[in-house]
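User: Some background: our group keeps a shared notebook of sequences we're curious about, and every so often someone picks one and asks for a predicted structure to add to the entry. Today it's my turn. The entry only has the sequence so far, pasted here. Could you supply the structure so I can complete it?
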Amino acid sequence: METLQTPRILLSGVSRGVGKFILCVGIVHELRRLGYGVSCGVLGANLLQAVVLRRLTGRYVRCFDHTFLSRAQNAYSLFHAGVGADIIVLLGQNGLYDSCLVGGQSGSDAEFAALTGTPVVLTVDGSKMGSSLAAVVKGFESLTQQFTLAGSIATKVFERHVCGVDKSEVFAQAFAKAGLDAPLGLVGPTSYDTEIPPVILDESRNRTILPRQFFIEIAELVREHVDLERFMALASGAPRVELPDLNYEPSSRRARIAVAEDSCFHVCFQDNLDLLKYYGAEIVSFSPLADEELPSGIGAVYLPSGVIREYGYELARNEPLRSSLRSFAGRGGCIYSEGSGSAYLCSSFEVAEGEFVDGVGVLSGAAYANGGELTNNEGVTVEDSILGEPGIILKSLSSHSWRFVEEDSLSHILRLTCGDAAPVREGYSPTAQSFCTFSLAHFGSNPVVAAYLVDAATVIGG
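Assistant: Of course. Here's the predicted structure to add to the notebook entry:
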């Protein structure tokens, strides 16, 4: 039995749009500067903001989502996220009590905080508030059950002084009257105009590259106006949570898996990579944009999704790397691809309306740019594959960005369902050791698939 005891904080808000992500970036940046080992997690399938936080922390950022993971799986995943870290900083997805169900809290930040015993710091838009800010925080505190509302931070505070009085003093007095601790900080808005990565999945263009000046400015605001010493103390007050059915026994390294990672390929549930490492994979990165051949000594290639329409011409010009991928597949190499990564493996893929470029050619057919609503899917394997035996259930997210038109008949080893819609056959297997899907699977929903992929890579690499 293991115990969740890593210091942790959940940054939630009174609603969306209060600046949680910007605040999280600044806090993580400063904690790293102070020498803390920071692990981050995001609530919901917030894949793009997770990419930015991974670059800040140097660690994989896990996604905690009740639509993909059970309550126990969420708790176990949080334990894994905290291994070796001094603190876990979690980014909430909506208002603290907001849920996808009217009148309920299923999937809300509050439910996750209660499940994992994680203290909450509430983010409040203070742009038009004075002493009323205390009333808002007090109202949220009065609704807390089974978790602690440990503190608050006001964002978008334009003026530091009103009528010659320091606003921090005004807030401190109002909070004291309400029986609350003073806010941990009053953070002003950033003057640098930049587009924040959206919460929804977008495979059309790169939304994760933010200017260096943005990070510098928000870090300076946090450094000056947020009490990080109190922040760490609140995180350290998180209670110990026993996880009776979890035994943490990571495997020793037994396979090398090459993962595409660059400005084009970077969109996936990072939980997948963390789980591959847990089951014995050594992750080595390569760039389909810059490298001319795959890393040596590998047993498998993982092609995550990305923004191949934006970088299509550069990818097509790098024929040596595409040839290296074809040769690897031809030798029986293990390949797992998803989303735009699978489109890249096609004979050709669309970069603009009616305009195609050459892909790798492992998947015989063309990938047409498509559009549609995000869906949460459940897949069941119907044949043996590198994911394991038939009957394995795996949950995934799809943006329906691609429509694949096969040239040759391929094995379809996954039966994919979404809600009440009729099941579709997906999960293409052009070779015995490959699995290509246009959805983004969350291995945390069934970690056994990560173990099977490492097993397959070990056989090939060995």
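Suggested note for the entry: The mean pLDDT is 93. Residues 255-461 form a domain with the Rossmann fold fold (CATH 3.40.50.880).
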